[in-house]
Amino acid sequence: MRTVDVLVAGAGPAGCMSALCLARQGATVLVVDPCPSPVRQLAGEWLHPAGVIALHRMGITTAGREFTTNRGFRLHTSDGKPPLHCPYPHGTAVSMYHHVLAALLLRTVRATPGITLRQGERVTAVTTTGRARTTREEVSAGLVVGADGRSSTVRRFLRPDEQAPLPLSRVAGLLLPGARLPRGGYGHVFLGGPGPVLAYQVAPGTVRLCVDVPLPGPGPSDIRGYLRHGYADVLPEELRPAFRALLDAGKVQWAAARFRERSFFGRGRCALVGDAVGHGHPLAAQGMTLALLDGECLARHSPDIPAYAAERTARSWSAERLGAALHRTLTGHDPTSLLLRRSAFALWRHDARQRGLVLGLLSMRDDRRSTFYDVLAHVAARALTERTRTARAFPGAAPSMGRLTGLADWLLWLIGPTIGPPRPPRGRLPAIAVMGP
């Protein structure tokens, strides 16, 4: 039996960051991963400022040509008004192909004393006492780190009867070579289709589109027509030709957007990091930043799993709820979500401070609950003001008790002790006429 201080299952960003931080504290670390090399897949490609800073603390630079610096987002609201300009108040993000960041971290892992990396090997069993089995050998570890993603084997052994993550939507990924964004150095969110579209530069001269397709969605024979007729017109003119050409060529990658609350961080001598802890909709692009911060925090508290869980629960509380709120606000078609969407846009157009607070939370440079409550209170107050104004102008349209209850229910869902997936929409999705491929 092999004996090590730490066994890390998974060599993605979460696993590499955990291994690096623990090894630099003097631990002997064994990292195993089933893939022989980083996989080119539709996965995390955006790192918020807090994640960039975490890499810099490890001496890892993102200044290379393969990384694009981003100063924030531009939100195209589909209401005929100019895009909402949403810069980060502090710091910058980077975007890149997922395999580019994975390869950079792997190079750093290989060069770090105390770490043994074995690719093409995976964990097949684990116990809370630190005993594990891989496809090669038995391992005894003082700490086992489950960094093996949404289908985590480590988590499955810790919670064998747990329900699967709940589906939210499907995401279509398209690469547009030679395309240019309306404004460089920003991520763009386009509304007006059945779901939002997130666009950003993923490599020099290449734009990534992430198209959110609501469930249940069309079948395989109708999907090209659905995407063409549902989303092309919400894109700016500079992106439409490439979008249509890729659809005609069938060059679309798919990923499932699922939700699992970040409430279980491990037990005994087994800790979870990154997507193995939990995950939300990729619209907020939080996954990789949370993964890096998890790895740092675990190393600070190792082997005290309860202390690690307590800090990460507290420090990711606002980010998790902001991600859930943005997803539900931008995708919901029920009356309450539509009201909050209009209210948020109106508020953010005229209140730069509130806009900055939202981006500070999204960047994870600010993780205070008080900031989240400030943002939520201002949007809710704006929504109630709009309801009152409508009732005075049109007495027959006074808000019913049901609608006010809907707003209260929406807010309680967001600030309750646990955050669940968005409630099933009560409104109808926009109708799309699918006329051929």
Describe this structure in words.
With 437 residues, the chain is of the alpha/beta class. Helices cover 38% and strands 22% of the residues. The chain is built from 12 helices and 18 strands. Strands 1, 2, 8, 9, 10, 11, 17 and 18 form an 8-stranded mixed sheet that branches. Strands 6-5-13-14-15-12-16 form a 7-stranded mixed sheet, sandwiched between helices. Strands 3-7-4 form a 3-stranded antiparallel sheet. It is globular. 46% of the residues are buried. Residues 425-437 have low confidence and may be disordered.
Mean pLDDT over the residues = 90
- As a whole number of angstroms, the C-alpha radius of gyration is 22 Å
Parts with pLDDT < 50 across at least 5 consecutive residues = 425-437
**How many strands appear in the DSSP assignment?**
18
Largest sheet: 8 strands, mixed
Through-space gap between termini: 57 Å
Helix content: 25-40%
Percent range for β-strand residues: 15-25%
Tell the overall outline: globular
- The tally of helices reads 12
Structural class: alpha/beta
Order of helices and strands: EHEEHEEEEHEEEEHEEEEHHEEEHHHHHH
Give the tags.
437 residues; alpha/beta; 8-stranded mixed beta sheet; 12 helices; 22% strand; disordered C terminus
